[in-house]
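FIELD: query
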Amino acid sequence: MPRISVLMRGLRTAAALAAFCLVGVAASGATVSSDQESQPADQPAISVTAEYPIPDLLNWAFDVRWQDAQNVILAAGQKGVFTVSSDSRTKALSRIVAGRGEPGGWWLSSHLGVSPDLLVVSSAGLSYAWAPKASLELREGDFQSDALDSIVDVDLLGKDLLILGGWRGDQGAYAPDGSIAWLLELGGESTVRRPVFYSRSGPGTPSMGACGGLALGAARFMRDGAFVLVPGVEDGVFWYDAEGQLLRTWESREFGLRDECAAAQRTKERIRADPVARNRWHNQRILVDEVLPLTTGFGLVLRSVEDGVASWRLARAHRDGRIDWFDLPFTGGSWSYLKGDVRDHRAVFLIVEHSASLDPPATRPRLIFADLHLPELEVERKAQPAARPTFESEPASN
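FIELD: result
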């Protein structure tokens, strides 16, 4: 039976179970895991193999995904979508989606979804498009698109697209059924969104309407088809299996997070309109920058800023509820944010500074390639020499 059909049968049960699990955790008096100091002093979770700034052309990079074992794909805002290769025998930098104002170009590339056959790119908050990855450069006519009222995050596994955000019904009402996350299958005759998560704030989802643009949430597929939702606009972290059944719920404070939407609503107009105020508001909190698909469990990458320095911790969550904590071995500035992806035992991180008040950014975005040293992955590791990519050329900007 198709996964979406199976998923829909248990949706309401899953939503009820999610609320029940959160109440149960709160009643137990759960606090941030005592395993936060579980990282062995002599065995870092991640060891960096290469780190370098990306070309000026990609100063406005927003997102990164592995394309294959040697290449990553970057969403570069108005410049389009690019591949970066670490193989010195091939061209190191090439564009696969044109940018704003170019024939067939996508107006703003901020989120990526990548599978062997499809590429999905979405704007920062309004629309998304997809196309087969059959050509070296996608042009007008290759893409199909759809619009939403807001997009917080997207991810792709095979032909299944996962979206976290907000939408308006046929009559213009915002989220009339209360849903804020959906699955849909691309490439078929129908692209109807199938709800997978309903906001506890009910129809109209005032929490998503108020805070959806503040970059508080994340969504990600795991390699086995399971997926993780961090709504961000309300409490909870939710792990679903490949059939859409809820596996586990964590209360946000188990990861050191708080329900920030209530606080944001008091000053939402100011922090929405003023990037400096929004960045200052972010820097006073612990935020989820990314969800990583790990071989065992999933990882939340949590950002915090102290004395003008951004640092990140990886919180690896297990199905039994355990959380392992690891410090990531790099830092950034007070405007820095992180996106990343994992393929087998290799991770790629993109450190970016994206704000309307920084043009160009104060610090050039950089790519960090790293090896994971998580215990479950050690049996799969193979010795591979690290290669530092050299950018042989940059495509001409039209």
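FIELD: remark
DSSP finds six helices and 24 strands in the chain.
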